């Protein structure tokens, strides 16, 4: 089951500003390498955001009160393909690094951008390092698994990937997502879950 996790994002404490600045400096020093492919361009970023916005009206949650910033960088990363920074509500959008590909299958950068937005969403809905309680029964039903089988550190990744599937379902992003076929029977469940939870957040039933 854990093969579903496309990549691991560094978990940071978004409230510790000094620590986060140190991590950002460390990121530039140690993570960035020469671009191994083209970075997703402005058009690709805008297209991805528009599809997700048209479906979920996501900006009302993730850009509240601070806008999401997406920075395309003409570099690749050594250990992951993109990175989100919840304390500055940002994503560094870097070029795919083929060295990180599993079984020579290059991940799609629109899919990864969608996954990173899932992390910024969970940072708004609950806490960056965990997931809303409502996600657990959706996971158990949709993934045919038990929550006890998943270690705590993997939940944000599962949430972000489930969001990526829900966002891509029945859109032009469907072909970019590597998990859609495997979990096809659960996609409408995932989509409805994110409609509900995003609507609740927009109507302030969840405190942001
Ligand atoms: Zn991630």
Short synopsis of the structure:
With 208 residues, the protein is of the alpha+beta class. It has helices spanning 17-31, 42-56, 59-62, 109-125, 135-143, 155-168, 187-202, and strands at residues 32-33, 69-77, 82-85, 90-95. Bound molecules: zinc ion.
Features of the shown structure:
single chain, 208 residues, alpha+beta, Collagenase (Catalytic Domain), 4-stranded mixed sheet, 7 helices, 43% helix, globular, disordered N terminus, binds zinc ion
What can you see in these coordinates?
The longest helix is centred in the middle third of the chain and has 17 residues, at 109-125. A hairpin with a 4-residue loop joins strand 3 and strand 4. Helices cover 43% and strands 10% of the residues. The relative contact order is 0.16. It contains seven helices and four strands, in the order H-E-H-H-E-E-E-H-H-H-H. It has helices at 17-31, 42-56, 59-62, 109-125, 135-143, 155-168, 187-202; strands spanning 32-33, 69-77, 82-85, 90-95. It is an alpha+beta fold and 208 residues long. The chain has one domain: Collagenase (Catalytic Domain) (3-Layer(aba) Sandwich), CATH 3.40.390. A four-stranded mixed beta sheet has the order 1-2-4-3. Bound molecules: zinc ion (ZN). Zinc ion is lined by residues 7, 9, 115, 119, 157, 160. Residues 7, 9, 115, 119, 157, 160 line the site of zinc ion (ZN).
